[in-house]
Amino acid sequence: MSNKVKTGIFIGGFVAFTLAALYPAVIYPKLHPEVFQQIQNETRKDIKQEEIQPGNMKVWSDPFSRK
């Protein structure tokens, strides 16, 4: 094999390995947000945010919403 072919295989393998490593942590949550929203809703259903907010701070609100 020539040097260019070996380099191409190495770079292709590196890109494939990187994408395979990033898929479960980055790509899957972006493609399937409803799964993670459901998990979050189930785990936070008994938590009242107003009661646990530290320092009498205002509960988070969307800064981009219309007033």
Automatic annotation (TrEMBL):
Keywords: Membrane, Transmembrane, Transmembrane helix. One of its GO terms (cellular component) is mitochondrial inner membrane. The chain crosses the membrane at residues 7-26. One of its GO terms (biological process) is mitochondrial respiratory chain complex IV assembly. It comes from the Eukaryota. Pfam families: MITRAC7_Phoenixin. This is Small integral membrane protein 20. It comes from Pocillopora damicornis.
